Amino acid sequence: MFASLSDPFETLLTLQRALEARTASDWIGRGTAAMGSFPPINIFQNGEDFVAVIELPGVDKSDLEIEAKENTIRVRGKKTIAYGEQASVHRRERISGVFDRTLSVPIRIEPDRIQAEYRDGILALFIPRAEADKPRSIKIS
Amino acid sequence: MSESQELQVQQKREVEKKTEGTTPGRVFVPVTDIFETPEALTVVLEMPGVERGSIAATVENDVVTIAGQIDFSKYEGMQPLYTEYNVGHYARSFEISNKIDQSKISAQMKDGVVTIVLPKAEQAKPRKIQVS
User: Fold this and answer.
1) Which of A126, B4, B80, B130 is the most buried (most CB within 10 A)?
2) Mean pLDDT over residues A103-115, rounded?
3) B96 belongs to a structural domain
4) Do A11 and B33 touch (CB under 8 A)?
5) What CATH number should be reported for the domain holding residue A65?
């Protein structure tokens, strides 16, 4: 359904439709244990592997800590907001503070091979599926 | 705000359009801070996922508009399994009362946060008045 779409608008609409359809998914269910609901996470399947895309605008890379163990991934850190000393604030909607969230994936993964990429306030975790978890074709003898 | 406060998810609000768009896709209202110094008005907007080159800031008739476009091609080939937020473009406009020196507007981007500095025009800057 997503394969080889060259029209960017079509990609966009398909993604949004798919995102909406998926909000009720129980893939993780109560699996996102520990602490609060921040940051929001989207999980995608890309071939056999998984990608977790996390929105963390305003968080500095050095304030971000990621740990992986068995099938859980923990993301924690802090977000700070600095105003100038002379500034008078007209509108304050952004919030600062600490966050700590653990994600447990209902499949077997390879925690040692997880790759993280942080760009433009988006953290992408590339989670490879464990070799033992991949389907194998069985030859009939 | 204290350092140890736990962060909460801020739900994305969709832009209520006065006019109808011609390009498809959702547009969300970025979470914004606005503060003022004697020299300038600074607008800080959270636009996660927007690249440096995809931001446009314009000032027209005392309305400043900031728009950021998301590159959806990164999501190609990915199938959502579990989602907590929607992905879309960002746009927001503000009416400004101060006179802005349009030629000196500057913008910078870091970690998905856009900072737009709108320097006040000379006549709009506060002056100290001597009491004689």
Assistant:
1) B80
2) 86
3) yes
4) no
5) 2.60.40.790
